[in-house]
Structure formats: structure tokens, C-alpha cells
Design brief:
This protein is an alpha+beta fold. It has one domain: Clavaminate synthase-like (Double-stranded beta-helix), CATH 3.60.130.10. Helices cover 26% and strands 26% of the residues. The protein has 9 helices and 16 strands. The strands form 4 sheets. It has a 7-stranded mixed beta sheet with strand order 1-2-3-13-5-15-4, covered by helices on one side. A 4-stranded antiparallel beta sheet has the order 11-7-8-16. A hairpin with a 2-residue loop joins β1 and β2. The relative contact order is 0.24. The chain binds N-oxalylglycine and manganese (II) ion (MN). The site of N-oxalylglycine has 9 residues, from β5 and β14.
């Protein structure tokens, strides 16, 4: 990838990288660049990619172990590596605002980190845009790393030793009922609230919609702390809204980033993106026996 150009996207995180063609044939050096860019920028966007599912899975494998998509796995035990984001089915047909799947996806409009509810949460998500609306449907990003750096000293000290329970059923049942088999496959999990990137020592906190409570704290004190931390991370000036262009491949670091979808008129527009994820390396503690 000679002739790479890197342009920052936002204060404290985000980069747009041009002159790079993502593929499963990338060499060690190019991969090292991408890994370093993930550690440094937390969010990298490669516009104009000639992508396919095969290529995307190959790129995903270059970055680590692909993560099985949890909805299908929870319901049927089948392992697939892709999630389809938006309102266009694999057969190309579009559904509208009233469709169950469109409503289910409104859960993604809450700030979250993908798979934070898993025993081993995701390292990165890779999302490629095939079809995008002319209006709406941006994905917003915010950094829990820059937010952690900006915390007042006393709050930093307070949260340093804490753990946090992430729970998919807690967060999703606020938007739509969760299939019982799916729910049983995802017991709550305990993670450290403050985490560190092993490559550069930079710290962040780890919250989002799946963050349910702080063990040892009352429900209401937990909620106040988690809401306060979320509000600090997602102040309007701290948010980058990615307005998708068809052909964009975006990779973000779920270890330290929050993101959320924004609305669009599914009756009017087609929106189709394909997502894969890479499994992380940091393991939490499962709080249930269903495995
Ligand atoms: C995701 C996600 C939101 C959106 O792909 O993980 O949360 O619809 N997407 O942009
Ligand atoms: Mn997501």
C-alpha cells in the first residue's frame, strides 16, 4: 500500500485512508499499518473499496478470528460470520419501517460497543456499505478513550478499580423481545470498567447500552455513574457522524469506541451494509451457566 494518505476525521480519533485496496492478499507490512492505525485512530475509513463477502471475510481473518454472529447462533446454533445491517434482504428485497427487522435494529440506535455482552468481546467491527440512503442512516462514533483522558481526577480514581456487568437481554428487551434460546445463549458478563490497550498503554472506560450495573453499587448509583460516563463520552462535540458513501469500508475498535445508528426512512430508501467482527483477546467472567 504505497501512496497511502491518512487524513484525520475528528478530534482525538478517526482517520480516512485513501490509496489502499483492502484484500485478503495484503502483506505483513500493510497489515501492520492497519493494526497500528486501529490502535492509534480507533476508527478507520477506506472509501471506494471494491468489496465482496469473500474479500471481507479474508480481510477479517487477516486481523484475527472472525466472530460468529450471535443472533443466528443463539437461535439455531448455526455459525455465520456476517450480519446484514439495514433494510435490504439477501435476496435484494427491501422492507419498510414497520418490518420486525427494521424495528429490531433500532436497538443499534443506542450507544453501544459491539459484543460487549460477550465473554470475549469484539476487537474490531468491519462494516462495508453497498447501498446507502440519500438522507439519514449515518453511523455516529464517540471515543471512550478521549473521554477517559478528560475525566476529572477524582472520578478517574473512583472508576479505576470497578467492574461492570454487560447484559444483552437487559439492553435489547428495552426495544424488542429477545428470543428465549438467544437470551439463554447470552448470560450477563463481568468486565473491568477501565481497560488498557496493550499495544500503547492508552486507557478507556467500557460502557454503552449493554452496561447494566456496577457490582457492589446500588442499582440507582450504578445507573447514575453509567449515564454520567455515557454523557461525557457522547457530548455533541465529541461525536463524529459517518455519512456513508457506497464503497466505504469502516473498521472500528470496539475495545474503546461507542457507536450508534441513526434513523432513516426505510419506506423510502434502501440501506444495505455487511458487517463482520474480529474476536478480541480480553476475557470477562460469565455470570450464568448457559453455554
Ligand atoms: C453495527 C451498528 C448501526 C447502523 O453495524 O454494529 O451498530 O445501523 N450499526 O449504522
Ligand atoms: Mn453495532
Amino acid at each position: 500500500m504505497t501512496g497511502l494518505a491518512i487524513e484525520p476525521l475528528h478530534d482525538g480519533f478517526g482517520a480516512r485512508i485513501t490509496g489502499a485496496a483492502l484484500s485478503g492478499d495484503m502483506t505483513g507490512k500493510d497489515l501492520a499499518h492497519i493494526r497500528e492505525a486501529i490502535d492509534t485512530y480507533s476508527l478507520i475509513c477506506f472509501p471506494g473499496q471494491d468489496m465482496s463477502d469473500g474479500k471481507q471475510l479474508a480481510v477479517t481473518r487477516l486481523l484475527g478470528t472472525p466472530e460468529p454472529e450471535h443472533v443466528t447462533f443463539g437461535k439455531t446454533g448455526e455459525i455465520i460470520y456476517f450480519g446484514t445491517v439495514g433494510n435490504v434482504g439477501d435476496d435484494g428485497s427491501k422492507v419498510g419501517n414497520a418490518a420486525t427487522n427494521t424495528r429490531y435494529q433500532t436497538g443499534n440506535q443506542l450507544w453501544h460497543s459491539d459484543s460487549s455482552f460477550r465473554e470475549v468481546p469484539s476487537f474490531v467491527s468491519i462494516l462495508h456499505a453497498y447501498e446507502v440512503p440519500d438522507e439519514g442512516g449515518a453511523t455516529e462514533f464517540a471515543s471512550m478513550r478521549t473521554a477517559h483522558q478528560a475525566l476529572p481526577e477524582d472520578l478517574r480514581a473512583t472508576i479505576e478499580p470497578l467492574h461492570v456487568i454487560h447484559d444483552y437481554v437487559f439492553s435489547r428487551s428495552q426495544v424488542a423481545p429477545v428470543d428465549p434460546n438467544h437470551a439463554a445463549s447470552l448470560p450477563p458478563v463481568l468486565h473491568r470498567l477501565v481497560r488498557e490497550n496493550p499495544a500503547n498503554g492508552l486507557t478507556n472506560y467500557y460502557i454503552g447500552s449493554h452496561a447494566r450495573s456496577i457490582p457492589g453499587w446500588s442499582g440507582i448509583d450504578s445507573r447514575r455513574l453509567l449515564d454520567d460516563l455515557l454523557e461525557r463520552a457522547t457530548r455533541p462535540e465529541a461525536v463524529y457522524a459517518h455519512r456513508w458513501g457506497a464503497g466505504d469500508t469502516v473498521i472500528w475498535d470496539n475495545r474503546c469506541m461507542l457507536h450508534r445508528g441513526t434513523t432513516y426512512d426505510a419506506d423510502r430508501w434502501r440501506r444495505r451494509l455487511r458487517q463482520t467482527r474480529v474476536i478480541g483477546t480480553e476475557k470477562g467472567v460469565l455470570l450464568g451457566a448457559n453455554r
